[in-house]
Each structure stands twice: as C-alpha cells, then as structure tokens.
Amino acid sequence: LYSAFLVKPGPPEILKVEGMKEMLRVDLRRKPKEPNYDSFICQICYQATTKVISKCIDIQIEIIERNKSLNLTGLQNFTNYTVAVQCKVKGSSKWSEWSNKVTNRTEEQAPLKIDLWRVIETYPNGNRSVHLLWKEYKEFPSSGIITGCKVKYTAERINTTFEKKYNHNEPIILSLTKDAYNIRFTAHNSIGCSPEATIR
Q1: Helix (H) or strand (E) holding 87
Q2: CA–CA dist 154, 151 (Å, integer)
Q3: Rounded Cα gap, residues 42 and 141, in angstroms
Q4: Which of 29, 82, 146, 199 suits 175 as a labelling partner, its CA being 20 to 30 A distant?
Q5: Of 9-18, 87-96, 126-135, 177-186, where does mean pLDDT reach its minimum?
Q6: Do 186 and 174 form a contact (C-beta atoms < 8 A)?
Q7: What residues contact 25, with CB distance under 8 A and at least 6 apart?
Q8: Domain for residue 6, yes or no?
Q9: Is residue 7 in a domain?
Q10: What whole-number distance in Å separates Cα of residue 179 and Cα of residue 125?
Q11: pTM for the structure as a whole
C-alpha cells in the first residue's frame, strides 16, 4: 500500500519575506499539487549575511493548511537574512529538498551610539575653531544609514545655547570664543536620533 511516511514531499515555496523591527515575517506554502498527507513538519533556517549568525526552527503545518505565515523574532536590526525551508510528513524521516532562498533586511533603528572627538585650532586672541569628528559605533549590528546630525553648544559664562544642523558628510567646524563650552551631538536616520554624545 502507498504510505505517506515513505514519500519524500516536494519542496515548499517561500512567497515573501518581509522585514520588520527585529523580525522577519515569512509567508510560505506547500507545493500546490502536493497530496493531502498528514501534517507537515517544516524546518526554517535563516542566516545573517554579514556575520556568521544562523538558526533553524521547526513549525507544524496542518493538513488543511496550504499557506503558512510565521514571524522570525529576536533578530538584529538593519541586517540582511537569507531564509530557506524544508518539510517532511509528520512522523517520516524523509525531508524534502530545500525551498527557494529569499533574502531581506530587517528595519532600521535609531543610531545606538556615536563616538565623538575634536581637533582645536587656537588663535592669538584666544578664540578657537573646533573641528568635531564623529563616527558611528561600529559594533554589529549596524543600526541604519545616518543621514545627518545636530550640534548644540552652550557658552557656560553667558548660558547661551546655539544649534546647527549638518548633512552626513558635511564638515563640522565651530567658531568659538575663549569661553568654556558644553557641546552636545546627535546623529539621526529615518527612524530617529542617537543618544547625545557630549564633549567640553
């Protein structure tokens, strides 16, 4: 007699992988002409393309389900992941071939941290040109694409605050008097702003 437990099913198909915040939503379906075997067990494997981070999870697809959606959670933001699926009939040891591979990226998050430092030019009258230099804190994962930054600097003696905005690659040069200043810096992307980095 024909037994589903001896049959190697056809590979499933990944219809869509949608990137969200710290997760991917995966839509998949069983092969359209696959007979209605018992429930399927599917193994979904995903791997970050920028670092060796991979994981596999098992899910069950019931007999009546042709399509299945699930969320892969706890992922790194703004990171490309490649997803593939294989299935077998529940209770069988015969796995299908792997599905098509689909790659997508999780959403950005606001910059996590900015490293800030300065180079000072001093003039005979005591005034200064302060060149602010910064870089994104390059610890995996990247949080997104920084598009600009904002600088606030306060003269302590007169308690006056100035504010300037800059594009991502624009030099930041502050013309300051000989007074002491507190400088606060934030970078931003499409999601939001980093925590303030301060320098005096």
Answers
A1: strand 80-89
A2: 10
A3: 28
A4: 146
A5: 87-96
A6: no
A7: 16, 17, 18, 69, 70, 71, 72
A8: no
A9: no
A10: 12
A11: 0.73
